[in-house]
C-alpha cells in the first residue's frame, strides 16, 4: 500500500527521519495544551496508544479527561502540541475528517436523534450510505443490497450491546444506561479503527457494565479495534484494560499496568482527596 504523506508530515519526516507516531502506535498525543482562560484543562499531555490495545484514562472530576478526548476527536484545537492518528497528523482537522479516518468517540452525556428509534439511531451512523447521494437514490438497485447489509449489521450490533429487545423504542424511551449502549452501538456501526469511550459504564448496572467490557475485549480480539476509555468505576475498568493513564489537574501524573497504577502512592493520594 502506498503511504500518502501530507506536506506538513513530509517536512516533519525530513527533520526527524521518520514519522514519530507509526508502526505499533495508532495514536500519539505530544505535549498538548488547552487552556480555557485561566483554567489549564489540558496542560502538556503526552501519551501513546498501541494498536489493538485497551487503554484506560482515569482521574478525579475536572482533571481534563473529556477535554483531552475533545482535542483528540477534533472538537477543540490544541493551543499547542501535536496529535497523530494512524500515521497522520490530525490536530486542527474537523471532527468529521477524523471520524472518516476511523477515530470515533462517544459522549459523556449521550447525544442521539430523539425523533428516531434505537435501531434507526444505530443505522444512521454507517459510513458512505449510497442511498443518500441524490443521484444514486434514483437507482434503487445501486443501494438496495447495501441497505439490507447495513440493517443486518446494525441488528448484530444491537445484539452485542444487548438492545435488540428495545430496538423499536424511541431513543427517548429507554433508560440512561441503554442510551449509553445505543451510543456505543452507533460508534461501532461507523466501523472504527479506534474508539474513544467517555464513561461507557456510567449509569449501567454492574452485571451489564462487565458485559460491556467483555464485549470490548471481544471486539478488540476479533476486529482489532483499539480502545481508549474514560471510566470512573475503577474496580470494573482495571479488570479489562492493558494499561492506564492517570490525569490530575490537566497533567498525566501516573501510568502503567492497572495493578501498578492501583498501588501508586500519587494515585492513591488524589483518589483519597489528598
Ligand atoms: N468549554 C469549556 N470552557 C471552560 N472551561 C471548561 C470547558 N470544558 C472544560 N472546562 C474546564 O476544564 C476542566 C477539565 O474539565 P473536563 O470536563 O475535561 O474534566 P473531566 O476529567 O472530564 O471531569 P469529569 O470526570 O467530571 O467528567 C474543568 O475545570 C472544566 O470546568
Ligand atoms: Mg468528563
UniProtKB/TrEMBL annotation:
Keyword annotations: Amino-acid transport, ATP-binding, Nucleotide-binding, Transport
Gene Ontology CC annotations of this record: plasma membrane
Domain ABC transporter as annotated: residue spans: 27-274
One Gene Ontology molecular-function label: ATP hydrolysis activity
Keyword flag ATP-binding: yes
Any Gene Ontology biological process: amino acid transport
SMART domains: AAA
Pfam families found in the cross-reference section: ABC_tran, BCA_ABC_TP_C
Keyword Transport: yes
Function statement: Probable component of a branched-chain amino-acid transport system.
Protein name: Probable branched-chain amino acid transport ATP-binding protein LivG
Species the sequence originates in: Pyrodictium delaneyi
Amino acid at each position: 500500500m502506498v503511504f500518502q504523506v501530507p506536506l506538513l508530515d513530509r517536512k516533519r519526516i525530513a527533520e526527524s527521519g521518520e514519522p514519530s507516531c507509526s508502526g505499533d502506535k495508532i495514536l500519539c498525543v505530544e505535549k498538548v495544551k488547552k487552556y480555557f482562560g485561566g483554567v489549564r484543562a489540558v496542560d502538556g499531555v503526552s501519551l501513546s496508544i498501541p494498536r489493538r490495545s485497551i487503554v484506560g484514562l482515569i482521574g478525579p472530576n475536572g482533571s481534563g479527561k473529556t477535554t483531552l478526548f475533545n482535542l483528540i476527536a477534533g472538537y477543540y484545537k490544541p493551543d499547542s502540541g501535536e496529535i497523530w492518528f494512524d500515521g497522520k497528523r490530525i490536530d486542527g482537522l474537523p471532527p468529521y475528517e477524523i471520524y472518516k479516518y476511523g477515530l470515533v468517540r462517544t459522549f459523556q452525556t449521550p447525544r442521539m436523534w430523539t425523533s428516531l428509534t434505537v435501531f434507526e439511531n444505530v443505522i444512521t451512523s454507517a459510513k458512505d450510505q449510497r442511498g443518500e447521494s441524490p443521484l444514486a437514490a434514483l437507482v434503487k438497485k445501486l443501494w438496495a443490497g447495501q441497505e439490507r447489509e447495513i440493517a443486518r449489521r446494525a441488528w448484530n450490533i444491537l445484539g452485542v450491546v444487548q438492545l435488540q429487545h428495545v430496538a423499536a423504542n424511541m431513543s427517548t424511551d429507554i433508560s440512561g444506561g441503554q442510551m449509553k449502549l445505543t451510543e456505543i452501538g452507533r460508534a461501532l456501526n461507523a466501523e472504527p479503527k479506534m474508539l474513544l469511550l467517555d464513561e461507557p459504564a456510567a449509569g449501567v448496572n454492574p452485571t451489564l457494565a462487565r458485559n460491556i467490557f467483555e464485549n470490548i475485549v471481544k471486539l478488540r480480539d476479533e476486529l482489532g479495534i483499539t480502545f481508549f476509555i474514560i471510566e470512573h468505576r475503577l474496580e470494573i475498568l482495571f479488570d479489562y484494560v492493558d494499561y492506564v493513564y492517570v490525569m490530575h489537574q490537566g497533567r498525566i501524573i501516573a501510568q502503567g499496568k492497572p495493578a501498578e497504577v492501583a498501588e501508586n502512592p500519587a494515585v492513591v493520594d488524589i483518589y483519597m482527596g489528598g
